[in-house]
């Protein structure tokens, strides 16, 4: 259909009759994509589809197999046009059965495919809850037949665009059906009432569970606000209570459907399930088996090969993920979040400890260890308290001795998560329980085999060295260097030892520097006190204290005592007319470097100087102060020294010291 100039020309379909059926089938089958729109418009503007249906009934009555094969080719081409108006006519309630009949005569199969017979006899519509609206029933049947065409009749023929169009039609039909059911006020009440009364071992119970699963699965196509209203209504009617009963069923098939219901609600809003769980906790009259959280944890630890444990693990991750927590009620949202995690860790999470044993199922162990690893990453104080209270690191480290490599690697992942947080709490837990000993033991037992265990252990120690985790580096070198030093095919452990030595040197230099800093600060403090005349407490107490009872502190209390030397000898003036003779008249003082204080008897005038005090010095006694002050006022007349007094000056005292004790006569 390309003209001489290379441009596309419009395709004209001949009049549809029995004689032109082969030509029409050839034109539509070989139609170029650029001609589809024009050809579809031509078909919509005529009674082409009506004539095709009449022709099909005539050929089927005549049992004209060749003509029916041409009809089959025409019908496939019409579907592949991917025109929404044409598809609506073909899938109408009055025409969809004929459409399926035309597709039965596919020449690629050796014999006719009895799709209509299959839909009438083998496909049974199960009306679990009576639906009173006929339009809803008709829409349900239509949607099922379109799904049958898409998935059973034309799965290979359809291209991506046509497949997407058929999927969209099915989706919109399901949304209309769901909205119509939700508008019926008594439909869902009848549903849950029938579920509560149903026999758990009968077929009606299984049909009801399947119906609830399909309802929750189709809600993902609703708009957000519509989906929220739908789930809120179902939860009020008892959706989670029924889910708890489904998870307690003995059939893995039904429990998987119950898990699908939980996943649908969690994908919409995890807060709905958390609120329900907290509401159950506040009802003390409930039995332990009726708690949904307890049922979830029991299902996680229940050995199963149907994938149920994996789905439960995903549910718990979504339920415990802090990113999914929504702050409700302002400041109370955080309190509600903390309350939920407190209840979970105190009442339910302890059940996982029962499987951390050497004889537990390996699949269950891996799921539990991965869940613990997730909690270590996303939680803070709750998982720390759980680890500390239950000695979790020690129990996980013992699992490194299991024969199953998958369990060993799962335990190593958890230890690596604790190390990767760079939290001293986990580092202290690892060192206190010697958790790396089983890791090193498994690494050495593995030898030089290049596998996942070898790479994981090397990465663990490389991370410790790169991040300079001093506590773990010191622990590893001091504890395992005797075994790790023999490994030559990698330099990781030697570099770890070098990093440890650098840390030790840096620590000693740091301590020494801190000591110098402290001493310097003390010297500066004392110097500043001396400069401003301030004294510390000990000095103030020393100078303020005064011993009134005498004793050995007489010399310290002899401040202000005046010593005079005259012709009559040497006396100590204690004030108030009290003097103590130090030498007899005419005795030389200071020639021998000795000043002798005479003993004062009990009847002496000053009890403060009782006892004998000897002052020995190689130099004469210096009586003058370090600084001489001129105490004479300008107005007072200058007084000449007495003839019998002896005055020692600073210069003469210094000269006496140089002379080795010789006194000079002034």
Defining traits:
666 residues, mainly alpha, two-stranded antiparallel sheet, disordered C terminus
Question: What can you tell me about this protein's structure?
Answer:
Helix 11 (203-218) packs parallel to helix 14, helix 16 (292-300) packs across helix 17 and helix 17 runs parallel beside helix 19 (362-378). The protein has a three-stranded antiparallel beta sheet with strand order 1-2-3, with no helix packed on it. The chain has a two-stranded antiparallel ribbon with strand order 4-5. It is mainly alpha-helical. 58% of the residues lie in helices and 4% in strands. The longest helix is centred in the last third of the chain and has 40 residues, at 492-531.
Short structural summary:
With 666 residues, this protein is mainly α.
Set down the secondary structure blueprint.
Layout: H1 21-29, H2 36-44, H3 48-62, H4 65-80, H5 84-90, H6 96-102, H7 115-121, H8 134-153, H9 160-182, H10 187-197, H11 203-218, H12 224-237, H13 239-247, H14 252-268, H15 270-281, H16 292-300, H17 308-320, H18 332-348, H19 362-378, H20 381-390, H21 392-398, H22 405-420, H23 424-432, H24 436-446, H25 452-467, H26 470-484, H27 492-531, H28 537-544, E1 562-566, E2 569-575, E3 578-583, E4 594-596, E5 614-616, H29 650-658
Antiparallel strand pairs: 1-2, 2-3, 4-5
């Amino acid at each position: 259909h390309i003209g001489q100039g290379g441009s596309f020309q419009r395709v004209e379909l001949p009049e549809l009759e029995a004689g032109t059926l082969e030509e029409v089938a050839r034109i539509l089958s070989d139609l170029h994509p650029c001609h589809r729109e024009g050809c579809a418009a031509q078909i919509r503007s005529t009674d082409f589809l009506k004539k095709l249906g009449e022709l099909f009934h005539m050929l089927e009555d005549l049992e004209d197999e060749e003509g029916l094969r041409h009809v089959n080719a025409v019908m496939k081409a019409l579907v592949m046009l991917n025109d929404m108006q044409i598809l609506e006519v073909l899938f109408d309630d009055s025409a969809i059965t004929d459409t399926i009949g035309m597709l039965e005569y596919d020449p690629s199969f050796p014999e006719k495919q009895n799709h209509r017979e299959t839909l009438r006899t083998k496909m049974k519509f199960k009306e679990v809850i009576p639906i009173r609206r006929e339009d809803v029933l008709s829409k349900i049947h239509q949607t099922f037949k379109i799904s049958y065409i898409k998935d059973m009749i034309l799965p290979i023929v359809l291209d991506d665009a046509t497949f997407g169009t058929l999927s969209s039609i099915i989706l919109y039909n399901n949304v209309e059906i769901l909205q119509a059911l939700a508008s019926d006020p008594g439909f869902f009440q009848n549903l849950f009432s029938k579920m509560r009364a149903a026999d758990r071992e009968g077929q009606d119970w299984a049909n009801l569970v399947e119906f609830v699963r399909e309802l929750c699965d189709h809600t993902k196509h609703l708009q957000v606000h519509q989906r929220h209203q739908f789930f809120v209504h179902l939860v009020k009617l008892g959706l989670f209570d029924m889910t708890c009963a489904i998870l307690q069923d003995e059939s893995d098939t039904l429990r998987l459907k119950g898990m699908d219901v939980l996943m649908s609600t969690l994908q919409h809003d995890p807060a709905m399930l958390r609120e329900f769980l907290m509401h159950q906790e506040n009802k003390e009259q409930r039995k332990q088996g009726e708690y949904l959280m307890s049922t979830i944890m029991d299902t996680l630890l229940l050995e199963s090969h149907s994938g149920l444990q994996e789905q439960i693990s995903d549910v718990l991750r979504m339920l415990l993920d802090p990113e999914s927590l929504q702050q409700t009620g302002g400041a109370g949202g955080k309190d509600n979040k903390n309350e939920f995690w407190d209840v979970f860790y105190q009442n339910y999470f302890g059940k996982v400890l029962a499987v951390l044993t050497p004889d537990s199922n390996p699949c269950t162990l891996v799921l539990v260890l991965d869940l613990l690893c997730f909690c270590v990453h996303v939680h803070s104080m709750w998982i720390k308290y759980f680890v500390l209270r239950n000695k979790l690191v020690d129990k996980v480290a013992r699992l490194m001795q299991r024969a199953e490599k998958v369990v060993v690697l799962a335990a190593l992942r958890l230890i690596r998560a604790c190390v990767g947080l760079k939290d001293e709490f986990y580092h202290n837990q690892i060192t206190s329980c010697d958790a790396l000993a089983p890791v090193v033991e498994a690494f050495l037992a593995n030898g030089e085999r290049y596998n996942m265990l070898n790479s994981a252990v090397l990465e663990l120690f490389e991370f410790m060295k790169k991040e300079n985790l001093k506590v773990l580096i010191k622990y590893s070198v001091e504890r395992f260097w005797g075994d790790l030093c023999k490994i030559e095919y990698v330099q990781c452990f030697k570099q770890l030892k070098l990093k440890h030595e650098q840390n030790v040197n840096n620590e000693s230099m740091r301590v020494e520097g801190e000591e110098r800093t402290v001493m310097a600060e003390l010297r500066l403090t004392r110097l500043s006190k001396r400069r401003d005349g301030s004294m510390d407490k000990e000095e103030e107490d020393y100078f303020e204290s005064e011993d009134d009872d005498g004793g050995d502190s007489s010399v310290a209390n002899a401040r202000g005592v005046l010593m005079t030397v005259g012709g009559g000898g040497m006396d100590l003036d204690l004030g108030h007319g009290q003097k103590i003779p130090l030498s007899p008249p005419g005795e030389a003082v200071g020639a021998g470097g000795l000043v002798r204080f005479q003993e004062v008897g009990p009847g002496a005038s000053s009890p403060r100087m009782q006892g004998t005090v000897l002052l020995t010095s190689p130099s004469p006694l210096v009586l003058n102060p370090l600084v001489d002050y001129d105490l004479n006022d300008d107005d007072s007349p200058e007084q000449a020294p007495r003839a019998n007094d002896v005055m020692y000056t600073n210069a003469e005292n210094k000269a006496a010291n140089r002379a080795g004790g010789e006194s000079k006569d002034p």
